[in-house]
Amino acid sequence: MLEITPSISNNFSLEKAYNFLKEFEIPLKEKISKLSYGMLTQLYLTIVLSEDVDIYFLDEPTEGLDPLKRLRLFDIIRNLSMNGKTFFYTSHVLSEVEKIADKVAIMVNGQIALMDYLDNIKEKYVACAVDKTTTLNGYLYKQTEKENVYIIEKDKINCNYETATFDMIFEAIAKKIKLGGDKKNEKRNLRYTPKSNYHFTLMIGLFFTFAPFQDFTVSMFSEELPSLEKYLGDNFAENLKDWNFYITSQWFGKNFGQFVPIISIILAFSLFSREYERGTIEFLVARLPRRKIFINKLLVSLITLIIIIFTLSILPSIYSIITAKDFNHSLVFKFMVHVLIGGFFWYSITLLFSVLFNTQIKSLFTSAILLTITTTLGFIKPLSFMNTYKYILGSELFNNGVNWIYSHILLLIGSFCIFLAYYIFEKKEI
């Protein structure tokens, strides 16, 4: 490898490379595939450092090196730096950075959160501990039972402070949780503002794709009835002529009802997992009790869900009144019970997953998979109780009325999931 490198680069010194190999005690006759991980690192360093260039890029160059070899590498870097060479050195080992860096950049999620000379950073930031009720304009470093510790710019504080190590400064800034003086951010993170307008508008549009077309639907089913009788029943086309059956079966049993679990999952899956994923949950718990955070998020999103389901449920009644249709409005109440409780059930389960998982995709994916599995298993007769869609769509409401037993079971399971989610959120380490 060393012999062919000079043919690739005009700046490569073969003499310097052999000197490094000797210093690093790498056996010249050993095959590269037989070298240990640490020796491979030293071989790569040999090739890089034997180049006579102005800028060197080293990415975690001390991995696999023993302490003495690390110290020797630092000496080499310092000597080259004193001779006018520049090093871009990336490392997760902060003690290494402090030993050799003049200027540092702290990167968070691919973006530079802070860049300055190391001495300036250590001089600029200090640590300040205050009680839980006090908020400072700085970066949260850690929390204890009685106080919060912030990393703050020295010229912006009016409290007793202590010197902050580079490790402390790095950890606080890397979290990228800027606190203080930003009530708008607190409110925005505390409340949940789902993009429900889109779903609401879509569902209203869906309602008007069939509500005005009863005669067309009846004629269509009448023409296809021979092939559909075994699936829909002998009297299905005749029943569609009845406005009560038509509007409720097409809205709750075919259109809106199908989307109730999906809407519930969408409203709940990112409630907490989004905060974990973005790191903003620490911003919230530093400012407010966990109980208040949980209740606020729960109430805002749950009330949103109830308003959406209630409004969409009464569309058949509103349309019937406007168009002077003879409609039994008590049917809306019965179907509303089923869709509200079914929606609450899937909302509660998804809320639990949102607390459990630290990423939105896991929360959403787990909820969707559970909905698919329970629905599929519900087609097996002994497991039909697992298919919540059968309940939500109200397939038995015309014959048996509201299924209060199943309703109470879903309410109990949903309530348990919410209490369990709250307990986990209170105890979860952040």
Question: What would you note in describing this structure?
Answer:
- The chain is α+β, with helices and mostly antiparallel strands and 430 residues long.
- It has three domains: 5-100, Rossmann fold (3-Layer(aba) Sandwich), CATH 3.40.50; 118-180, no CATH class; 186-427, no CATH class.
- It has helices at residues 5-8, 14-24, 37-49, 67-82, 94-100, 118-124, 166-175, 183-190, 196-207, 214-232, 236-239, 243-268, 273-278, 281-287, 290-313, 315-322, 330-356, 360-377, 388-392, 397-400, 404-427; strands at 55-59, 86-90, 103-108, 111-117, 125-131, 139-143, 147-153, 162-163.
- The strands form three sheets. It has a four-stranded antiparallel sheet.
- The longest helix has 27 residues, at 330-356.
- The protein is elongated, with a radius of gyration of 33 Å.
List the defining traits of the structure above.
single chain; 430 residues; alpha+beta; Rossmann fold; 3 domains; four-stranded antiparallel sheet; two-stranded parallel ribbon; 21 helices; 8 strands; 60% helix
Topology at a glance:
Blueprint: H1 5-8, H2 14-24, H3 37-49, E1 55-59, H4 67-82, E2 86-90, H5 94-100, E3 103-108, E4 111-117, H6 118-124, E5 125-131, E6 139-143, E7 147-153, E8 162-163, H7 166-175, H8 183-190, H9 196-207, H10 214-232, H11 236-239, H12 243-268, H13 273-278, H14 281-287, H15 290-313, H16 315-322, H17 330-356, H18 360-377, H19 388-392, H20 397-400, H21 404-427
Parallel strand pairs: 1-2
Antiparallel strand pairs: 3-4, 5-7, 5-8, 6-7
